[in-house]
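A reminder before we start the practical. When you read a complex entry, don't treat the lines as separate problems. The point of joint prediction is that each chain is placed relative to the others, so the output describes one connected object in space. Small molecules and nucleic acid strands, if listed, are placed in the same frame. In the example below there are two entries. Take a minute to note the order of the lines before looking further.
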Amino acid sequence: MDVIYVLWLRQLKRYWRSRGRVIGSLGQPLLFLLALGFGFGPVFRKAGQGDYIQFLAPGVIGMTILFAAVFSGIELIWDRQFGFMKEVLVAPVPRLTIMFGRTLGGATTALIQGFIVFVICLLAGFRLTHVEQVPLAVLFMSLIALMFTALGTAIASVMSDFQGFQLVINFLVMPMFFLSGALFPLMNLPKLLEILATIDPLSYGVDGIRAAFVGVAHFGIQVDLAMLFVLSALLLGMGSYLFSRIEL
Amino acid sequence: MIRVQNLVKNFGEIQAVRGISFEVQRGEIFAFLGPNGAGKTTTIKMLTTLLRPTSGVIELDGLDPTVHQHQVRSRFGIVFQDPSLDSELTAYENMELHATLYKVPRGMRAARIEKLLTLFELWERRNDLVKQFSGGMRRRLEIARGLLHTPKILFLDEPTLGLDPQTRNQLWSHIQKLNEAEGVTVFLTTHYMEEAERVAHRIAIIDHGRIIAQGSPAELKQQTEAETLEQAFLKLTGFSIREESASSLDQMRAFAQMWQRRR
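Here is the predicted structure of the whole assembly.
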């Protein structure tokens, strides 16, 4: 327990001390929110779908958490050769404990990042229609954070260097974001796109956040919750297994 | 303290360690020397539970690292070839984390941390972030940290790589002092022969995965009729340069060095 706590705390301290980097990493979501939000706004309205910012904000929040979480997981590649993780991996501590401490820490910082973007969305004109459902939205955000930190850890556990990093970003993380319904509604899509969106874990996260904040859902809150719980458990299990097999 | 018998490690077709045997006595400073790619780091990794041997027997303080993993881990401290500090944390925070990981009793933590940081002349800088430290200070902090849980054995994998002569000299003085004061057994590797000659009680030379000579520095020099350990080493291992192709790890290492210099 002690160990999980100190590993978690360590990552929060690191996050807090690298404020410069935090501000830098807000650039991308901000760009999406402003350029797409205000750029596509008129088209979206003409199509009879209402205010695009209302639709887009939950997607941008989901995207922020996705990227922050995957990166904090993938940081392990560096950390285990040139950083502190090596020290932790030879300590008399079970690997599972280390994995949980690290994943919880990474997920927490990703969640904080998501909150910051949420506040920025509010400033940009995002309005909540179901204020009482904020805790539910936080639950969805936490699940996404946990799930993708575990995914990042799983990937980092089997990758020995950064050669495959571009591959992961371009063929896994980016598609997960673009196909998740973060940017466009999942109604009346071509069949292939619809299938891809259905197997995309982020789809359920974005749908859940949107349902909680503004009351619009594609899959429905129950389906979203169930899918996210199952996927989180699955990825945490996979991450733990692969993490326990790391040889230095 | 350490007993190794017929230790073998194969990576697929490649035989990295081919049946080595040696013993390290309690309180001894033991140097493990060899050219690049001889099998030094692979051996250290097997001794410190990071790699499973293909075959052979290892005993650390009477325990088998492959069976009693956690008990063995709490009995040694290690300083890796590559840095393993958290540079976004302070020196003190790094020490505290280590104390928690190794379950150093709470009542003893503060006193032990203060003692070691003072010994390694880092107490004044305890609240500074490690990223502001020089290479020598980082090394000292890593050694201090490795000793925090009062291990019986200290492993040092090329601890003086990239340090200037003053810092190296000081570092070895510290290690010799500690070896005398706390009786900690030291197992080290280095490429600087004069360092091994100065501090090591006994030396083993490994080449192509086999131990080719063992003994005190004086014995090795006598055997080879050499005046310095460096000459003895070259006579034993030959003059040809071992060309290792650069692995992705070496690339990352080069990048890490570049990155550190920029900060």
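Discuss with your neighbour: Chain A touches chain B through 27 residues (CB under 8 Å). What might explain this?
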